[in-house]
Write a structure and sequence with these properties.
The chain is an all-alpha fold and 366 residues long. 76% of the residues lie in helices and 0% in strands. It is globular. The chain starts with 6 loop residues before the first helix and ends in a 16-residue tail after the last helix.
Length: 366
């Protein structure tokens, strides 16, 4: 059971990977279209509605930790850490260096920038060598704390209510601590594991009784969809306000927005997981087989795709500058899967190379 492959997790991973690339792609019409136009608003709010994508990766990463370890006697801390060094620490450092070198060549950074220790702390300590690497740093923090979180999640594995309490009440406290005190002295606090506490903890909790939880949420599928629809509407309302803040003064209390955002992310994760189960178990015709093959490839190489795709986005940002809002939709729908496929091919061959493979979290040791 511990090594069982879950088709729905693979399916969900590929869907989320495409969502992540779409999020980064949606930055392009954001800056290319007229400020305040309905066209810009469409793409800005579309991007905001995909906010669950990276948290879904966090949730799945923690879920698989408990899912694979649940039948083992005890938690093998040193073995766990050793595996994560190869899987995430080395790739994180490698890709941080790759992006810093790339941006030096692209003249974003100078030799003087590399001479400042504070910049290295910012780049490597907070996952800021490139924007998307914050996910890697947060997962390093979660994995570092996993030996402490594991027994807590395991203890309440059969209690959804207590698990939600452990997830949400500290998260609310963290919000207020940041709003009242921490933000003034530590503006990067929202790029730490604490800001995603409920996502990581509930992901770890979910994996212990995976089949039981899936059965429960299937039974209450209609309720999940109803709650998700309400949460979607609230998130849409606040995302529209955040868009208007780009050019006019719009004030609102961020507390209800933030609480709903966490609810929206978790409900989207569960809904997407249930959708992935249905999709992976459905009957497949010729066309759907091709789609499934593509999604399987994206899932298999999703780690490398995630790490690599911003390099291509940097180039595309220079080339795609149309101010026609109608053109951006087909551009995104066509280019996103093409970019995922290209990065997947590079990852596939990169994982086979003796030294390069370490950058993709693959050790070639026998």
């Amino acid at each position: 059971m511990g090594n069982k492959s879950l088709k729905e997790i693979s399916m969900l991973r590929s869907i989320v990977m495409l969502m992540v690339i779409t999020i980064h792609f949606l930055n392009l019409p954001h800056v290319s279209l007229q400020m305040g136009s309905y066209g810009q608003g469409f793409y800005v709010i579309w991007r905001a509605m995909l906010v669950c994508a990276v948290p879904c990766f966090m949730f799945l990463s923690m879920l698989m930790v408990s899912y694979h370890a649940r039948e083992k006697e005890g938690f093998e801390t040193m073995k766990f850490y050793k595996k994560r060094i190869y899987r995430i620490v080395i790739p994180y450092l490698a890709w941080s260096m790759i992006y810093l070198a790339f941006y030096y060549i692209a003249h974003r950074y100078t030799k003087e920038d590399f001479a400042q220790i504070s910049n290295w702390i910012y780049w490597l300590g907070y996952g800021k060598a490139n924007d998307h690497l914050y996910f890697m740093m947060i997962m390093c923090q979660f994995y570092l704390l996993t030996p402490l979180l594991y027994p807590l999640a395991k203890k309440y594995r059969n209690s959804l209510g207590i698990a939600l309490g452990i997830g949400f009440f500290p998260q609310i406290a963290i919000y207020w601590l940041n709003r009242l005190y921490i933000h003034e002295v530590y503006p990067l606090f929202t790029s730490s594991f604490a800001w995603y506490w409920c996502i990581g903890f509930l992901g770890l909790w979910f994996g212990f009784e995976y089949e039981k939880n899936i059965t429960f949420f299937k039974k209450h599928f209609k309720s999940i969809i109803a709650l998700n629809t309400i949460s979607f509407g609230i998130h849409f309302f606040y995302s529209n306000k955040l868009w208007h803040q780009l050019w006019e003064k719009v004030y609102f209390d961020t507390f209800p927005y933030t609480v709903n955002m966490y609810s929206y992310m978790l409900l989207c994760i569960v809904s997407l997981l249930l959708f992935s189960i249905k999709l992976s178990n459905s009957e497949k015709n010729g066309f759907q087989n091709k789609i499934n093959h593509f999604l399987n490839e994206v899932s298999k190489y999703s780690y490398g795709i995630y790490l690599m795709h911003p390099l291509f986005m940097f180039v595309l940002r220079k080339k795609l500058t149309t101010s026609n809002p109608y053109l951006w939709l087909p551009i995104i729908l066509i280019t996103v899967p093409m970019l995922a496929y290209l990065c997947g091919i590079i990852t596939k061959y990169g994982e086979k190379l003796p030294v390069v493979s370490y950058a993709f979290g693959v050790s070639r040791k026998k």
